[in-house]
Amino acid sequence: MIIKNSNLNLEQIATSGQAFRWYKNGEGYVVVAGHKAVKMKEVNGGIDIDDEDDFWLDYLDITRDYQAIIDQYKLKDEFLEKATAYGDGIRILKQDPFEITVTFIISANNNITRITSAIKMISERYGDYLKTIDGVKYYDFPRPDQLKDVSIEEFRACGLGYRDKYLFQLIQDIMQNKIDLYAIKNLGDDELKKALLRLKGIGEKVCNCIILFGYQRYEGFPIDTWIKKVLVDVYGIKTNQEDFAKDYFKPYGGIAQQYLFYYGRSVKLT
DNA sequence: GTCCAGGCTCTTT
DNA sequence: AAAGAGCATGGA
Asked: Which nucleotide is closest to the Cα of A117 by its C1'?
């Protein structure tokens, strides 16, 4: 299917640090989501997805008017104006809560390259085979029950480092019904955060990523090392960054944060 | 060799 | 409540 949208850029989405299963394929990407692997590529005035499933419209959050959001933020200050212009094709993908939770537990004190490689290894070793595209095999992200017998050492072997035990514990908690990452979708914002913060390896920042990317709670404003640099260097905020961000960037703090993250990384603030 | 990466847990003030 | 040490791993 062809999707035309003025705020939809595959490369920007793929490199914006929210999804780790977008693999380069020629001029486009193979995207693994929704138990499928499909090709996406830019065509004039839109993107071409090699699949007809309406899942992708939802995944890409296609009904949301990102331009209207940009138009608001770009008036607030010069940096936001540049950031929204630079990343005007970014959208916040609606991703699977379990996959996002695992991904961002692994993301702690880590870099995007290593996160990507760990997620790839976990999928190839424990996920269902999906299909082969241009000679490359793609695997679904495993379900919790497919990980229930994986040892801490085996997670370590996927390149998780010391985070191996956090993922191991998450799987135990899920299998023992101490947490249901799908059922908690219905909780209010505060209750959802509390439920996630009880899990090992999830602190304030990782929690905000999970509620933003996995549960579409747009007030979540993850403050990582890059965003800290932006808040200090650009906005002069050294303390109580969370309070400032929550107020200044509302009501779509998470979306604003994504523009700041993408642009802030590109200009390499010192 | 040191520093850093989408930080967290655990211990000590 | 707040601050500090320790943590796996690979790339710059």
From this structure: C10
**Protein residue closest to B8, using CA and C1':** A201
Joined together, the tokens standing for residue A127 give 């996920």
Distance A180 CA to C4 C1' (A): 34
Taking CA atoms, A94 is separated from A7, A78, A216, in Å, by 16, 29, 7
Q: pLDDT 10s per residue in chain A (270 long)?
A: 999 999 999 999 999 999 999 999 999 999 999 999 999 999 987 999 999 999 999 999 999 999 999 999 999 999 999 999 999 999 999 999 999 999 999 999 999 999 999 999 999 999 999 999 999 999 999 999 999 999 999 999 999 999 999 999 999 999 999 999 999 999 999 999 999 999 999 999 999 999 999 999 999 899 999 999 999 999 999 999 999 999 999 999 999 999 999 999 998 765
Q: How far is the CA of A69 from the C1' of C8 (A)?
A: 39
What is the rounded CA–CA span in Å between residue A34 and residue A59?
A: 8
